[in-house]
Amino acid sequence: MTSGLDEHSKAFQEVVDGVARALADVRHVQDASFISLPVMYPSGSLAVVRIDLHHDGHFLVSDMGMGFEEADLMGAGRLFAHSAPAVAVRAGVHFDRQTFSLGVRREQLVGAVSVIAACSQEAVQVAAFRLDEKKKADAADRLCERLYRLFTPAKVERGATVVGASNTPWTVTALVRADGHKAVYEPVSDHPNSVASALTKFVDLNQLEHPPARIAVVRNKDALGTRLALIATAANVVEEGVSDQTLQRLALEDAA
User: Could you tell me which residues are beta bridge partners of residue 101?
Assistant: First the structure.
């Protein structure tokens, strides 16, 4: 009985050891080592941390500027540069233009590798979030200017508050009142947070006894993937390039 338990325990430990080894990968070159970690950037790529032998038995741990490169590829390099210093200060590490780094002793290496990877990931995530917010603000400006032209400014309320069926007050990008109809217009990006926020808002408004028409305006339907079908359950989804006639017509239709 004991032998069976021991064998089971050993097999279990071997499985877990295999998982642990698979979580990280190391590559050694002449003057440095590189560790790939299960820390994922928004693009889906994994963070890689570099370790160099520094001096007096100390080591230099850095992200090699990979976080900046990730952000720059999505057009958020400048936003990364603005957000990264605050991330570095909170974590107690160094940030120099594009790179997170930390000098440590041997016994501090494990913690340093984890912290540098986490800082790099966080700074990219913050930059991606701010980029999405900027894109949404720009999209809101374009949308409202167009609605002012189609309906006149007197019929368009930007940043209006609409109370949903749950009694939750929602701030909408634009509320149009025209010919006895109400319509809510909301720009939606392909960012998961933008989709989730818009969907929650649209679903609650749709449950009203007399719901307003709901129009989600996106840059590209294909970019939303499967999320397009989700939004379509609670709103009409149109691309920014839709004709003026369609954008106007949707506001004047009876909400479903």
Answer: 62, 94
- In this structure, what DSSP letter does residue 166 have? T
Q: What predicted TM-score, i.e. pTM, was given to this entire model? A: 0.75
How do 33-40 and 25-28 pair as beta strands? antiparallel
Nearest CA to 189 out of 139, 235, 126 is that of: 139
Tens-digit pLDDT profile for residues 156-188: 999 999 999 999 999 999 999 998 899 999 999
Domains of the chain, CATH where assigned:
2-132 (no CATH), 152-252 (3.40.1350)
Taking each helix axis from N to C terminus, what angle separates 109-151 and 66-73, rounded to the nearest 10 degrees? 20
The pLDDT-based confidence of 1 (bands split at 50, 70, 90) is very low
Structure confidence at residue 83 as a pLDDT band (50, 70, 90): very high
User: How far is it, in rounded angstroms, from Cα 202 to Cα 214?
Assistant: 7
| CA dihedral sign of residues 132, 138, 140, 142 | negative
Tokens of 226: 């499967």
